[in-house]
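INTERNAL AUDIT FORM
Audit reference: QA-55
Scope: verify that the stored structure record matches its stored sequence.
Auditor: D.O.
Record contents follow.
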Amino acid sequence: MLTTACGGGGDDDDTPAPVPPAPTTSPVSGAWQTTIAGGATGNAIVLDDGTLWALGTQASGQLVSQIHGSLQASAGRLSASNVVSVDYTRNQFARGSLSGSYVAGSSATIELTIPGTGSTGAQTYTPVPASTYTYNRAASLSDISGTWQAPTGMRVTINASGALQGSQDACRVTGTVAPHASGKNVFNLQVTFGAACSTPNQTLQGVAVTLGSGASARLLATALKDTGGDSVYSLSAVGTRS
C-alpha cells in the first residue's frame, strides 16, 4: 500500500511567492469643497478606493444634504451608480447616479441625476486648501478628541481612545471613531441611536474629518445605514469646539 501526505513546499523550492497587485488609489481621493446654490457650502471626502461622502451645509451650520456612493474615475471621467442622496430640508432621500469629469488635484465637476426628477445641475469642486486640511497623512485621535457643538443643538464628546457620546434633546448616541486603515487623515465613524431617538437602536457607519486646527477647527461627520429598500438612516453633523 502506498500512502502520501500533502503539505507545504520543501526548503529547496526557490520559486518566489506571487506579489499581490498594489492597491489602486482613486485619482480624485482627498478633500474637496464647493458652493451650492443658495449660498450653502459643500464638502466632500473621497477615499482611496473611490468611496464618496459629501455634505451640504448653510452658513449657519444647518445641514442641507448628504451624498454617498462609490466613484469610478479614469481618464478624466467620473461616474457612480446607486448613489444615495439625502435631503435634510425635506427629510427624504432618493437613489440616483453621478457623472462628471476631473482634473487630478485641481477640480472635479459632478452632476447628480435622480430618475423621474432629472439632473440637479453640475457642481464643480476644488481641493480644500492644504492650510486647512491634509489628506495624505495619518489621522491622529488628538485632532478629533474633545467636545464639539453643532448649531442644531447636538453636542458630541470624543475621548482620547475614540469613544463617542452625543446628545440632542432626549436623543442619545454612542459610538466610536478610529483612524482609517488607509493611513490617510480620515476617521472611520460608527454611531448607534439610543432608545429615545426617532430611529432607536440603529447603527450607522461613515467617516469624520476635522478642518482647521485649534479653537477654529470644524468637525465634519456623516454616517449612513442603507437598508437597500425604501428607507435609509442618516446622521450628519458639522460642529465647532466647545
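Auditor finding: record pair retrieved intact. The first strand starts at residue 30 and ends at 36.
Action required: none
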